[in-house]
Amino acid sequence: MSDVLPPVLEIVGRIPLQGEVRISGAKNSALVILTGTLLCGEDCHIRNVPRLMDVESMMEILTFFGLKIQRQGDTLDVDARHITQSSAPYELVSKLRASFFAIGPLLARLGVARVPLPGGCAIGARPVDLHVRGLREMGAHVHIEHGVVHAVVPGSSRRLKGAKIYLDFPSVGATETLMMAATLAEGDTTIENAAQEPEVVDLANFCRAMGAKIRGAGTNTIQIVGVPRLHAVDWSIVPDRIEAGTFLVAGAITQSEISIFPVVPDHLTAVVAKLEEMGHRIVQDGLNRLRIVPTDCPQAVDIETLPFPGFPTDMQAQFLALMTLAEGNSVVTETVFENRMRHVAELKRMGANIRLRGNNALISGVPLLSGAPVMSSDLRASAALVLAGLAAEGKTLVQGLHHLDRGYDRLDRKLQGLGAQIRRLETPEELAHIPQLALKEI
Ligand code: UD1
Question: Lowest CB count within 10 Å: 267, 351, 374, 384, which one?
Answer without folding.
Answer: 351
